[in-house]
Design a protein that fits this description.
Elements: E1 13-19, H1 23-34, E2 39-42, H2 71-77, E3 105-106, H3 134-137, H4 139-143, H5 153-167, E4 169-170, E5 184-185, H6 192-204, E6 211-212, H7 223-226, H8 251-261, E7 265-268, E8 271-279, E9 284-292, E10 298-308, H9 312-321, E11 346-355, E12 371-373, E13 392-400, H10 410-418, E14 423-431, E15 440-448, E16 454-459, H11 464-483, E17 487-493, E18 524-525, E19 528-533, H12 548-568
Parallel strand pairs: 1-2, 1-10, 2-7, 3-16, 4-5, 10-19
Antiparallel strand pairs: 6-12, 8-9, 9-10, 11-14, 11-17, 12-13, 13-14, 15-16, 18-19
The structure holds flavin-adenine dinucleotide (FAD) and iron/sulfur cluster (SF4).
Iron/sulfur cluster (SF4) binds at residues 217, 233-239, 243, 245, 247-248, 368.
Length: 571
């Protein structure tokens, strides 16, 4: 699409605008297009099409430096995002922004891991999908923490069914109230050692369930749903590079192609949305302003409804930058909560150990995940903890360690690689973080980036509840390894900064009262009915579950609501 001028209003007017093309933006675009709305997706990053995955088929020996980014390059370009020394590698660095080109400031350290391109982080996400339950939706109200969620599980249950059916989530039903079962494709089975772990843990701790991870990798192809666009998972375990088979759910493989097929979609890459324009007369948004990052031109686009899906931080930055007489502190910020209550999950704590008894066994393939242990503390009176609120879950796996003597070479090396080695278990604890008003992001209007956008500043940290929860997370993990007969048990507790778990959320929270929240129960900005925020910014608490499937369910629900409002002529 060519450059459009502000004067050419017909070409710059759409039914709907979606800001961002990542997990939630792709979903919003598909739902809007299939309902017949001419939809413009504005994406600040470069164009990427399904299949443009430069490292997807590279073998380990084809990646320089054993896949590591050289020290100098990491220091120059990834000095914030690679502080943990694992997020940026040769096979994925093209999906991650360079810190020197996309600066942000920190009062307290915040690891903001992200990439600007069509597809957003849907290309490299880990695809773990777990439903929330009323234990999560009711927690704030019961404990007097933050504000009450304006929805309950019954409000979103059918939307989980709806998105899981399309996304394709593999998993095993367990009947747990804290992580409800969903519409599952066949699970990736636990390997023999993982199955043993599940059984031994259950004997001692029946409430701790080791289940196959629930992931958005197609284990079964359904021609009616996937319509030749996606294929079955090949067990290659390279999903974060982009999946050429489309087995892994992403905007590129899944939602954008369906939106495109309708003929209603326009995607405009290299389009940095700087602000949403508020019309004082209609008391609605009239559209958005963008800067074309290639030409430097500023263009205004117009639409009846706007979906904000630029990610938790991206969306909130746009809203804070959208100042008018009516909203001098940022669009929709009557409550003063915009930018506050930022949350993430916290990790960097976990265990590893040898699992004896399987030295003569093999398994086939490279399944792209291991097991999940859903939260089991503070579920009910029996599991209540005095020391802290909420809980934690674990992600882990057990695999055969290669049995290679240090100096083996040639035939010796080959021989030893094919000999089964011991099995080693590793599992990481993911803890819930509470919403604190003091944890925030804001804009520094005195300091601009190369595109003229005020610099984002983070000021958030983990607090007492998180610290206590971490200690118990490790203690409970060790108990399980001991129950399963593990040897050489090692544990670690290396505090991570918020952001590092890449589940940032909460900066434009949903709530019942416009005085204390930014969005209502339909993800609409209180007081500006034609703007919907359905990325992680909307979250009122963080739960322990990976959140993206919930963003998708809320997005589909909000589009359905907007559609009905438009039919009625309310929007
Ligand atoms: C390595 C990794 C593993 C992960 N694993 C999991 C997991 O297992 N399960 C899970 O639930 N989540 C996981 N996540 C998190 C998940 O990727 C995010 O929750 C999800 O992508 C958020 O979706 P989104 O639509 O809000 O944002 P994104 O997918 O980040 O997309 C936002 C898009 O908006 C664009 N944008 C930003 N600002 C602007 C602007 N001003 N104008 C125009 N466009 C803009 C961005 O360029 C981007 O393309 C993982 C993330 C990573 C990186
Ligand atoms: S393991 Fe499956 S989902 Fe992942 S890249 Fe390979 S085929 Fe795709």
């Amino acid at each position: 699409m060519g450059i459009m001028t502000i004067n050419n209003k017909k070409e710059t007017t759409f039914d709907a605008i979606v800001i961002g093309s990542g997990i939630s933006g792709g979903y919003a675009a598909m739902e809007l297009c299939t309902k017949g709305y001419k939809t413009l997706v504005l994406e600040r990053g470069r164009m990427v099409k399904h299949g443009d995955y430069p490292t997807a088929n590279m073998d380990p020996w084809e990646l320089p430096n054993q896949n590591k980014v050289p020290h100098d390059e990491a220091e120059e370009h990834y000095f914030k995002q690679n502080r943990l020394n694992w997020w940026v590698n040769q096979d994925n660095k093209h999906w991650i922004n360079k810190d020197d080109e996309y600066p942000y400031d920190e009062v307290n350290r915040f690891d903001w891991i992200r990439g600007h391109h069509v597809g957003g982080r849907s290309i490299m996400w880990g695809k773990h999908c777990y439903r929330w339950s009323d234990i999560d939706f009711e927690a704030n109200a019961k404990e007097g923490v933050g504000v009450d969620w304006p929805i309950r599980y019954k409000d979103i249950e059918a939307w989980y069914d709806y998105v899981e059916t399309f996304v394709g989530v593999s998993g095993q039903k367990e009947g747990l109230k804290q992580v409800p079962d969903g519409v599952f494709l066949p699970p990736f089975e636990l390997n023999c050692a993982e199955q043993h772990f599940r059984e031994e843990v259950a004997k001692v701790y029946p409430e701790r369930v080791v289940t196959p991870g629930r992931v958005a990798n197609l284990t079964k192809y359904d021609p009616k749903i996937h319509k030749g666009l996606r294929g079955q998972c090949q067990n290659r375990n390279r999903c974060w590079r982009g999946c050429p088979f489309g087995a892994s759910f992403s905007s590129l493989s899944s939602t954008i192609p369906v939106a495109e097929e309708t003929g209603n979609l326009t995607i405009r890459a290299n389009s940095i949305v700087s602000e949403i324009v508020y019309d004082e007369n209609s008391k609605k948004a009239s559209g958005v302003k963008i800067k074309d990052s290639e030409t430097g031109k500023e263009i205004e686009f117009f639409a009846r409804i706007i979906f904000c899906n630029a990610s938790t931080v991206g969306t909130t930055a746009i809203l804070l930058n959208s100042r008018s007489e009516r909203f001098p502190n940022g669009l929709g910020n009557d409550s003063g909560e915009l930018g506050h209550n930022i949350m993430d999950h916290h990790y960097g704590m976990g265990v590893s150990a040898l699992m004896p008894g399987f030295e003569d066994t093999y398994y086939k393939g490279r399944k792209p995940l291991g097991f999940y242990i859903p939260r089991f503390t503070n579920i009910d009176e029996k599991t209540k903890k005095k020391e802290y609120r909420r809980g934690f879950g674990y992600q882990g796996g057990i695999s055969r360690v290669r049995n290679i003597p240090g100096n083996a070479i040639g035939e010796d090396l080959k021989d030893s690689i094919f000999k089964p080695g011991p099995y080693r278990l590793g599992m990481t604890c993911f803890g819930e973080m509470l919403p604190y008003h003091e944890n925030k992001m804001y804009l520094n209007f005195d300091k601009k980036d190369k595109n003229g956008m005020p610099i984002i500043t983070f000021d958030a940290k983990l607090r007492e509840n998180e610290m206590k929860l971490r200690e118990d997370g490790i203690k409970c993990a060790i108990e399980m390894l001991e129950a399963a007969g593990c040897e050489d048990i090692q544990s670690y507790n290396n505090l991570t900064a918020p952001g590092a778990c890449i589940h940032e959320m909460g900066t434009a929270r949903m709530g019942r009262d416009p005085k204390s929240s930014v969005l209502n129960k339909w993800n609409q900005i209180h007081g500006v009915s034609n703007i919907f925020v359905t990325d992680g910014a909307c979250m009122t608490s963080s739960g322990t579950q990976n959140p993206s499937i919930t963003y998708m369910a809320l997005t589909a629900r909000a589009v359905d609501f907007a559609h009905k409002q438009m039919i009625k002529g309310v929007l």
